[in-house]
Amino acid sequence: MFFQTFLRFVSNLSTIAVGFLSVVVHWIPVLKRYMEGTDQKKAAVSKREGLPCIAPLLTTVEETPQVVSAQVRGHFPKWLSGSLLRIGPGKFEFGKDKYNHWFDGMALLHQFKMEKGMVTYRSKFLQSDTYKTNSVHDRIVISEFGTLALPDPCKNVFERFMSKFEPLGKFVGSCYNVIRVPPEKVDLGETLHGAQVICSIASAERMKPSYYHSFGMTRNYIIFIEQPLKMNLWKMITSRIRGKAFSDGISWEPQYNTRFHVVDKNTGQLLPGMYYSKPFVTFHQINAFEDQGCVVLDLCCQDDGRSLEAYQLQNLRKAGAGLDQVYNSVGRSFPRRFVLPLCVSLNDPEGENLSPLSYSSASAVKQADGKIWCSYENLHPEDLEEEGGVEFPQINYGQFSGKKYRFFYGCGFRHLVGDSLIKLDVVNKTLTIWREDGFYPSEPVFVPAPGTSEEDGGVILSVVITPDQNENNFLLVLDAKNFEELGRAEVPVRMPYGFHGTFVTV
């Protein structure tokens, strides 16, 4: 109720009054605590020049609702039966109105169906309220992450989501809610039926909570990372009257450290341990597991959290020196391991590493104030720096999620979108690469072969696209063990670069 009442109040303020309040807020002194990080080598990232233009991968395409048969070259295993489902932005304008940010585009669903070595393809725009409303008006009438629409007559998805939960008493500041959603729905029309808040974590700054994209989870614990990529609620609430998009309220503030919150998944209790690390930003977790009284957390991390700013569509569509400049301004993402000892007592010695794990160089050192300072272990060889880092990590989730593991798969980023596929051995710290010049693979999805218990016994699926209008896009299948191509299924359909996907068996 507070935010609804406050938003109505702010909406009625004059422009002069809002400007005055902004100045007052700006000059309020804030006490900030900062701890110097331990000396850890940052990845030496080389600059790149002469990047090819990828604008065709970031433009509106038509949906393909009718099934298209793919031309298979090589072979797809006969046991591979099911569908690769993917989602990503596929429409970037309505009428004369254009979206500003990559995240704003309307969702396009893709299906590659595999059966007995044959492959078919089709796609369809998600018929969301936003898509239908914008289509009716033939313009953008609902604001998105990086695009402000005026007027905005409909509630957005965030308001619809939050309306499902009653406010927890008097407003005392922002918090992060850990929500358990039942696996089965009673009513197919109600996706949040039975959802329950099991834990609320107060943010370090009441009006500037952390932006987050994912969280870690082991068998018994949930790990929430409060990172210094901040969401200024004042700016977001006043975005409409200031003529700014929501993204204007997000800022990278490396004067703050990163904190790990650990929640008991069974009881909903927040563990008392105060785990901190030097500032970094993470979007995707690799895996997390428990070992010898510790939580081991593997992440793809960036030391510079300003990458969201770079993914404006006008930046992604640049060519020549302008494109090179955008790419070289973006922080690279590298896999790192953190170790969080769960049972920390007052009697534990200060200044000593509390991690008992001999196989990891990650440390957790108790400070004089009782905080645990966590230093990471790099999970990659130096070769990965030349590949532009790695993102969109995937593992053999069916057998190794929440367990000690060895391999993960991801995209190398020698461009603003993935330009290679990488298999990384986190034990031996070696990598294997698949690349084809002029083509850009999507997030790799691991599919286990039937009857095998080997961690990499299976195949990797990835949708590979190209800006070259004379070449076909295709679904690639690799042997996950040796990373060699088994086959590809080509389709004469234009596709934009997407984000995430999953494999669903028949």
UniProtKB/TrEMBL annotation:
The lineage of its organism: Eukaryota, Metazoa, Chordata, Craniata, Vertebrata. Binds 1 Fe(2+) ion per subunit. The keyword Cell membrane does not apply. Fe cation binds at H213, H284, H500. Belongs to the carotenoid oxygenase family. GO terms for biological process: carotene catabolic process; retinal metabolic process. It is found in: Mitochondrion. It is an enzyme of class 1 (oxidoreductase). This is Carotenoid-cleaving dioxygenase, mitochondrial.
